[in-house]
Amino acid sequence: MCYNFSMNLPLLLIVAINLLKLGLVRFFPLIGDEAYYWLWAQHPAFSYVDHPPMVAYVNLILSTLFGNSELVVRLGALTIVALVTYLIYLIAKELFDRRTALWSALLFNLVPTFFGGGMFLVPQMLVFLFWSLSFYLLVKLIKTGDGKYWYLLGLSVGLGLLSDYVMALFVIATFFYLIIDKSQRFWFKKKEPYLGLCLSLGLFLPVLVWNFGLGFTPLFYWGGKMGTGPRIGDNLLNFFGLQTLLYTPPIFFGSIYLIYKARKNLLLATFAGAVLLPFTLISPIINVGGHWPACAYLPALVGSGKMKRWVIGVMIGFALVLDLGGFAYYLFFYPTPADLRGQEFTINAQLPAYLKATTPKTGKTYYFANDLGLLGLVAFHGQVKVNMAPGRLKQVDMWGKPELKTGDNIIYFAINEQEIGDKLKPRFKKVWVEPRHRLFNKDANLPNLTKIFHAEGYKGGKLP
């Protein structure tokens, strides 16, 4: 009885962790990225400037079935975490044993990126889901030698490509693994791998066609993130610091060790290196987001449960310190504007009434934002169409550019750009600033830094 409890303790803790997160979701309003991806679902397309379309399709399905609410989006994210948890369990069980599988699944749930970040419905969570599914299918393929898994793998990789371009690294990793492992080279003489690849490309083809039609706009979008000049020292420090904090030192350095000791487990080392090495190489010239290389850590997570008990204890300790520190900050120390205290979680629901009450009686009123996250949040909570000044963001321009006429009005939400008010004054008869804060979330200090400008009686000129 005691033995069974010990074996099932990780499972009980996984259930407890996710029930805890379910209870805490109300304290974490939508972040800007989530709201922006929700907005994509209001404009279905084959692809988008920033990412492939899967996150938009998931949001569209969720909102169609269950309506538009923060809880629906959160449940979507938590469901993905539950699916990945099960896949990590299956992978570790196939490669090692049930004990390893349970502890690996628990450690996945405790790693900060997935403990806290797993509450947010963003493309990186979706690609991690399909990366995990694809890796599981590859493990089954290797163990059984059954060619049918290539077709399932092709479908899974295709769905991953529809989630995030980083999934292309899975194809590259598989290719190199088949070359390096002599026992698997025979697949190059079989038709199944090539047909599986065709399935992947078939699913991804609409994205390629969409990109081709726009001159591969995403390349310029992501290329623009490299900045105007090299900041090698700062970027490297940021990269290694974020990887250590978001995935814990044991998982980060464990991944490096896997790559270094590739001969011990060629499969895990290949798939860790296929993601971690490219992102490390580009990190000096581009400020790599902490969550971008998330798939690199699947191999270390899968093998983490195989460690000795004291090592697992250390890993859990690191994760808990980072998790509790992050949650304590966001729950108790987040800098909430004084006029929002006590109504942090009700103010967003008041936005439609506020917009209606402050809309001028004459002329048509348009709603604007200067930031993609703010754009999505105002659209989600305010239940209105929100625009950007033409030329600010290619994706928003594709949804239509507003054509103001003389006498029209705008309500402009701006973050980190207070000079917008001065730029609006020559173009409108009257400009005033809302004295109170009207939006709340816990993302990039948005509540404190956002101003709402009311501009009435458009006279003409380019909008800022």
Q: Unreliable runs, pLDDT <50, ≥5 residues? A: none
The profile of the biggest β sheet is: 5 strands, mixed
What's the SSE pattern? Answer: HHHHHHHHHHHHHHHHHEHEHEHEHE
The number of helices is 21
Give the C-alpha Rg: 24 Å
Count of distinct strands? 5
Strand order of the largest sheet: 2-1-3-5-4
Mean pLDDT: 93
Give the distance, in angstroms, between the N- and C-terminal Cα atoms.
Answer: 69 Å
Q: What class do helices, strands and sheet pairing give? A: alpha/beta
Helical content band: 55-70%
Strand content: 5-15%
The overall number of domains is: 2
Using the alpha-carbon principal axes, give the shape.
globular
Describe the structure.
The chain has 464 residues and is of the alpha/beta class. It folds into 2 domains: 2-333, no CATH class; 344-458. It is 60% helix and 6% strand.
